[in-house]
């Protein structure tokens, strides 16, 4: 098999590459612009002849068509994946998350790629009245990142309905794990290690945390499962209050930190818990009883 991973030098993408290499899944073409991705995340594969890392931008339609030639599966993870970053640079988030996604879908169509697995986000739902959130809930994005992911999903549906490009959509909750940065868990762990305060915006948030290994397993299963036309939430199905996360960090051995409370940021979704019925029934995945089970592992 020939497998494309866009955003493969990033946080989730590099873990996916690790797993596909371990499984001997086939020839891997890793595409990353290295704006958020880091070459160090893939250094362990530099001598593997089955892993080719290409510094390219998904906004380059011609390059995507060429790189995807002969591919069987595309895992499309490349994106401006930071909510605040998408808000501060609207043009980049649109050109990458929307136009870049169209480029990948068009490359799949022209090259006869069997399936595209598109990583969407819980941000497409925005604020909701009732938890947990089912996949049937309407799009109601609160920020530019959520809007761009909703648009990507709509284009995936168009390419499925119009051109018969198989598109599998997974909507990720708040993923955590090694190699992540600029999000709450890595920021707070770093603060606790360095004796700096943990900055809390608002403090009333309820977040569905999911460990990166579960997300990788979901992506791999989504590449073959009978889920076309059915987006699937990937999460723990549990809501963790943000201040409960803070307590877990404060309780880590040797943690030296305190809370520094700031006003809530209006573009951030305050409460989310995923309904994971489809994840269980269609992908056969069961989350761990403790969503934050790997926190101590990251600290160690």
Automatic annotation (TrEMBL):
<protein>
    <submittedName>
        <fullName>UDP-glucose 4-epimerase</fullName>
    </submittedName>
</protein>
<feature type="domain" description="NAD-dependent epimerase/dehydratase">
    <location>
        <begin position="3"/>
        <end position="235"/>
    </location>
</feature>
<comment type="similarity">
    <text>Belongs to the NAD(P)-dependent epimerase/dehydratase family.</text>
</comment>
<dbReference type="InterPro" id="IPR001509">
    <property type="entry name" value="Epimerase_deHydtase"/>
</dbReference>
<dbReference type="InterPro" id="IPR036291">
    <property type="entry name" value="NAD(P)-bd_dom_sf"/>
</dbReference>
<dbReference type="Pfam" id="PF01370">
    <property type="entry name" value="Epimerase"/>
</dbReference>
